[in-house]
Structures are given as structure tokens and as C-alpha cells.
Write a structure and sequence with these properties.
alpha+beta, 3-stranded mixed sheet, globular
């Protein structure tokens, strides 16, 4: 049975992974919990950041080429969102960007 308490890193923080996926609102994931997919309102994030993450996730396309300018803009925006997540969740979670090969 999975724990309802998120697992902690050695320093006590949670581990949140960022990667896009169809059929989800947020591209945020946390392993080894009942709530592997992090849903809207589950983290102490401003609504505008949640909305920006959801919009970024919607624009994901697994068929775009890495050389495509739209893909480059999408990746840059994703990294900017990860930086903001790291600021908002400082001391609470380690944020890992897992959306580039």
C-alpha cells in the first residue's frame, strides 16, 4: 500500500518532477504516493503559476523537432517555470526538470 505522506529527501524536502503529459492539468509528478500526479491546489502555489504550468503543458507536442523555433520557445518557457517553482517551493521541494532528452 502506498503512503499518503509524500516521501522526503534526506534533507526533508519533497521531490517534484516536471514533465508534460496529455490528459493532465499540471506537468508535476511525485513518485511513491497515492497522488503520483499533482493536481491543481495540491501545492502552495499561486494560481497564476498553476495556470501558466497548465498552459505550458497544453502546448506540448512530442512530434516537434528540437530545431523547431516553437520547440525552443516552449523549452525556454518550461525552464523559466521551473525556476519560478524552485523559488515558490524553496525549502519544501526539490524541483527536477525532466522534459529534455
Amino acid at each position: 500500500m502506498r503512503s499518503r505522506t509524500p516521501p522526503r529527501l534526506d534533507d526533508g524536502r519533497r521531490l517534484i518532477r516536471v514533465f508534460p503529459e496529455y490528459g493532465t492539468d499540471l506537468p508535476l509528478w511525485e513518485r511513491y504516493t497515492d497522488h503520483y500526479l499533482i493536481e491543481l491546489g495540491m501545492l502552495p502555489l499561486p494560481r497564476d503559476l498553476e495556470a501558466a504550468l497548465a498552459e505550458w503543458n497544453e502546448k506540448w507536442s512530442p512530434t516537434r523537432s528540437p530545431e523547431d523555433p516553437d520547440e525552443q520557445r516552449w523549452l525556454a518557457h518550461g525552464h523559466a517555470l521551473v525556476r519560478r517553482l524552485r523559488t515558490e517551493l524553496h525549502g519544501i521541494a526539490e524541483i527536477r526538470a525532466e522534459f529534455e532528452d
